[in-house]
Design goal:
- The protein is an alpha/beta fold.
- The protein has ten helices and 15 strands.
- Helix 4 links the parallel strand 9 and strand 10.
- Helix 1 crosses helix 8.
Length: 307
Amino acid sequence: MFYVIGGSNIDIYCKSDKELILKDSNPCKLSYSFGGVARNVVENLSNLHERICFISAFGNDHFGEAIKNDLIKRNVDLSYCLTVDGYSTSTYIAILNENDMFVGVNDMSVLNKLDKKHLSVLCDVVKDDDLLFLDTNLDRELIEYILKNIKGIKVCDAISANKVIKLDSLTKYLTCLKMNELEAKTLSKKDLNTKEEIVAYIKSLISDGLKEVLITGKDYLYIGNNEQIVKYKHNAYRQKPVNVSGAGDALISYYMAMRYKGKSIEDAARIGITASVLTVDENKSVKDMDLNFVLEKSKEIIIEKEN
């Protein structure tokens, strides 16, 4: 069973075909989709037909109902979700100046309504062999409570350089942590400019108690545990990505699902990398694809393994 705790957003994109003019009305093309790291992970896992319980908070509004109805159609258990009056469902708005980000704003305040009291019931629900995923949209105090009090195989996505610092001194309670290179630099307080520096940092995390570490870059993935540290390098991005926002979510979703099923690190890495690469060709944050499709596409990707 997979338990996923964290953010669930409506992502709204406003794209202008011309240079934006400040303090004026600008015509744009507007689109929206469901997002949020934890919610994206849930959707990816649902494409793999896993049993999932999602724990998040929603406003009592149209967007909240839309997200919940979509998840219900995917057979996701929402028994422990909150619907809060007086709050808006978490919303992310991106203003795009032609093809580049101009500014992004978000309101995720409703997620703060998740607290220890509400999550305490999970202490008796989640079993040692269940997989528990959380993102760093949760506040530091709640993350610490989850890691120290709720059972399960605990996996976390760092999300951003600003939010990864919430994990300072808490990584030893995790089974697996995924970070990109900027997030790893922020958490380590080191430059990490060379392979030797990255390997040394992974070793320090493992010696402190973390079981498995993933650090991603544009064309590489480091994976380390107490037996080995391997760099997987690929050249899979053959064209300009359409939307990179869900790439990391796909990687960790497929990787942890494969590891949970007992697949080797190498097999899980290949599947995770492939899922990530396929996702960036989508306008949405999640690509609708099952495991057989990903396995078939993985044959087209050359991945070099460096010990």
